[in-house]
């Protein structure tokens, strides 16, 4: 019997320790294995003196008191109470001689057993504490939280608690979101909100975002991509109230001007990521104010800012030593005079996009190769003045290159591919579309290069007229290749593609073959009827 009592006590101790760990860790799934590990979880109430048993015990106690020989009044009743307590302790697995402290501990463990045994029948609100339910709700998305808020009043309070709304993305509701929705969210979340995406929400204006800025002053990431109604007033409110802002996306907010950048630079000095792509009213003055006051700027996206010039780029190279990503796509006024200072001042640069900047020459590639040794992504599509000489310097110095877009770099030849195969072992994505001087020899160098076996995933060869089925045979060594683009490669045949798929069954090959011209039907002899006969 002592062995059973000891084992029961050990199980109770383990159960108590496990439960405290579960509550401390907040792991709901750990409750199920805990219930399965310990016995006596049938859900029934433990045996104990019920009302009828209590009455019987009282009657026996009174009869014993009347028949007893003790001279002290109430002695038999106290004995009866002591016996009753001893019976209760035995039922709980404790010996009768336990101390009062151990008995109290046993009572606590007994109550915990009652809680565990009744968990399967109780409601979830009684199973888990409020803190644990909040932890569960914190993993739900916006739709799930709104559904939970309609279950009950208690769940409504939990689901709409500000701690569950630290990250909100309303892109899927962009057509329905209006200004009052943003205002209500800001009042509900308050200082809890850290990240908000209003991408595509064209119904949101300056008034709603002013209320948002006043209520959510701890916001760190804000996306206003495509919010075409906002003006400089919104950026003024953000600069005034949201000093902790680090990530701001203003893509396609075409109404904002340099005033917005100046207001942000004065109030949001911790800004690290700024996207003003396609904001064509932003000029040199706005960029200069921003880079001077925000020294921690790491990502600057100026895609489609047609008024960007070399003077603005010189300020970027001077005041942004931490810059790692720069996008100047379609900034047609940019030349080597502006890009070279950026390369010399931003040694931590890892990604650069200058596609469609037709004024750039090999001087850009030389500056990148000599200063930006950590470069991983380079997009120079449409830069037709770049040649093999520049890419040779770049490849020999930037060994961490992972993605290169060389589309329409019409001067490069197989020599560039040779240098990339020798010096860029981490290359994963390479676009050579419309590079009409690339031949099978260049693809052979690439297929036997350091990046071929484990790294190269995507290869684009659209409109390369000198590429034949021999190139596909060389690509069979690229075991990690996932996608190949072969549109308008006139010397590629279906048989060559079939052989490549036999070696790489999971590869996706995109190609286009013009349908065969149907044979001309035998022309029937024309009826020899003159016009006069037809009229008659």
Describe this structure in words.
The termini are far apart. The protein has a 14-stranded parallel beta sheet with strand order 1-2-3-4-5-6-7-8-9-10-11-12-13-14, with no helix packed on it. The protein has 23 helices and 14 strands. It has 536 residues and is α/β, with parallel strands linked by helices. β4 (247-249), α13 (258-267) and β5 form a beta-alpha-beta unit. The radius of gyration is 38 Å and the shape is globular. Mean pLDDT is 81; it is low at 1-75, 94-103, 115-122 and 532-536. It has helices at 2-25, 31-37, 51-67, 75-91, 100-117, 124-127, 130-137, 142-148, 153-159, 179-189, 206-215, 232-241, 258-267, 284-293, 310-319, 336-345, 362-371, 388-397, 414-423, 440-447, 469-474, 494-503, 531-535, and strands at 167-169, 195-197, 221-223, 247-249, 273-275, 299-301, 325-327, 351-353, 377-379, 403-405, 429-431, 458-460, 483-486, 508-511.
What is the overall number of helices? 23
Q: How much is the radius of gyration in Å?
A: 38 Å
The oligomeric state is: single chain
Largest sheet, if any? 14 strands, parallel
Query: Which outline best applies?
Result: globular
Helix content: 40-55%
Query: What's the end-to-end separation, in Å?
Result: 127 Å
Query: Structural class of the helix and strand makeup?
Result: alpha/beta
Q: Count the strands?
A: 14
Mean pLDDT: 81
- Low-pLDDT windows of residues: 1-75, 94-103, 115-122, 532-536
Q: Which sequence of strands runs across the widest sheet?
A: 1-2-3-4-5-6-7-8-9-10-11-12-13-14
How large a portion of the residues is in β-strands, by DSSP E? 5-15%
């Amino acid at each position: 019997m002592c062995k059973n009592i000891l084992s029961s006590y050990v199980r109770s101790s383990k159960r108590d320790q496990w439960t405290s760990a579960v509550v401390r860790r907040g792991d709901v799934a750990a409750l199920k294995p805990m219930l399965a590990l310990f016995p006596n979880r049938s859900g029934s109430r433990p045996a104990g003196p019920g009302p009828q048993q209590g009455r019987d015990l009282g009657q026996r106690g009174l009869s014993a008191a009347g028949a007893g020989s003790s001279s002290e009044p109430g002695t038999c009743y106290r004995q009866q109470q002591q016996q009753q307590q001893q019976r209760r302790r035995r039922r709980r697995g404790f010996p009768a001689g336990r101390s009062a402290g151990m008995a109290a501990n046993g009572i606590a463990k007994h109550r915990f057993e009652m809680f565990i045994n009744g968990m399967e029948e109780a409601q979830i609100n009684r199973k888990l504490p409020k803190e644990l339910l909040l932890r569960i709700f914190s993993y739900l998305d916006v739709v799930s939280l709104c559904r939970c808020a309609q279950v009950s009043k208690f769940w409504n309070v939990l689901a709409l608690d500000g701690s569950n709304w630290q990250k909100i993305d309303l892109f899927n509701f962009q057509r329905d979101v209006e200004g009052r929705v943003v205002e209500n969210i800001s009042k509900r979340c308050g200082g809890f909100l850290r990240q908000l995406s209003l991408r595509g929400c064209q119904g949101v204006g300056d008034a709603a975002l002013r209320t948002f800025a006043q209520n959510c002053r701890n916001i760190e990431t804000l996306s206003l991509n495509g919010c075409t109604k906002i003006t400089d007033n919104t950026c003024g409110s953000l600069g005034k109230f949201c000093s902790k802002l680090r990530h701001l996306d203003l893509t396609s907010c075409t109404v904002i001007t340099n005033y917005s950048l100046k207001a942000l630079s004065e109030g949001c000095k911790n800004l690290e990521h700024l996207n003003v792509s396609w904001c064509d009213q932003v000029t040199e003055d706005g960029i200069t104010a921003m880079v001077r006051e925000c020294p921690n700027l790491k990502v600057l996206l100026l895609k489609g800012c047609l008024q960007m010039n070399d003077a603005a780029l010189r300020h970027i190279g001077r005041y942004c030593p931490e810059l790692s990503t720069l996008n100047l796509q379609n900034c047609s006024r940019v030349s080597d005079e502006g890009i070279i200072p950026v390369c010399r001042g931003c040694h931590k640069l890892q990604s650069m996009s200058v596609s469609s900047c037709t004024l750039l020459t090999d001087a850009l590639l030389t500056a990148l190769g000599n200063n930006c040794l950590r470069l991983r992504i380079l997009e120079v599509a449409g830069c037709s003045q770049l040649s093999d000489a520049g890419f040779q310097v770049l490849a020999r110095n930037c060994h961490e290159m992972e993605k290169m877009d060389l589309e329409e770099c019409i001067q490069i030849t197989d020599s560039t591919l040779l240098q990339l195969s020798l010096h860029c072992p981490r290359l994963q994505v390479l676009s050579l579309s419309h590079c009409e001087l690339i031949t099978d020899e260049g693809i052979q160098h690439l297929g036997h290069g350091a990046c071929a076996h484990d790294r190269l995933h995507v290869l684009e060869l659209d409109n390369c007229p000198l590429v034949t089925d021999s190139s596909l045979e060389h690509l069979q060594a690229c075991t990690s290749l996932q996608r190949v683009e072969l549109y308008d490669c006139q010397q590629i045949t279906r048989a060559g593609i079939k052989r490549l798929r036999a070696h790489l069954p999971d590869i996706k090959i995109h190609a286009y073959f013009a349908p065969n011209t149907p044979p001309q039907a035998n022309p029937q002899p024309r009826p020899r009827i003159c016009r006069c006969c037809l009229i008659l």
